[in-house]
Amino acid sequence: MLPLAANALIKVTPGLMIWTIVCFLIALFVLKRYAFGPIQGAIDARRDRIRESLDEADRAREEARTLLEEHRKLIGKAKADAEEVLAEARKQADAQRERVREETEIDRQRRLEETKKQIDAETQRALEQIRSEVTELAIAATSKVTGKVLDREDHRKLIEEAISDLDFSVLERND
User: Which of 24, 58, 59, 168 is at 20 to 30 A from 7, Cα to Cα?
Assistant: First the structure.
């Protein structure tokens, strides 16, 4: 068997034990007074900085979400504005196209009326020329048939009778 206090470290010495407890209490007091307070303060300060950083990150995330939503709204509004501008441009283009079509139609009608007037004037001129030639032919034929020269009054009566027998309405109806 081994003796109970064979090792000096295991041997109970009351004086050493008291001095060890006194040194431990002094070291505990000094650590508590000068080390634990600043260490705890540093830990608390770091905890507060971390908490503030997390809060700031949450605020930044919320601000980013808000900005993203505003950005999406602005994009939606821009798209709506662009659609509105396009619709207005289409509307103006349709109105312009309709106005040009109407002006073209009016111009076409005006030219058609002018052409009809020119045709009517030419027809009247041609009819007058035909009447004049018929009159001259009638005078020449009368002179040859009757063998005498008629005076102005006889000519006029003869011409009016010849012209009244002719049907010029056929020439006027060729529209």
Answer: 24
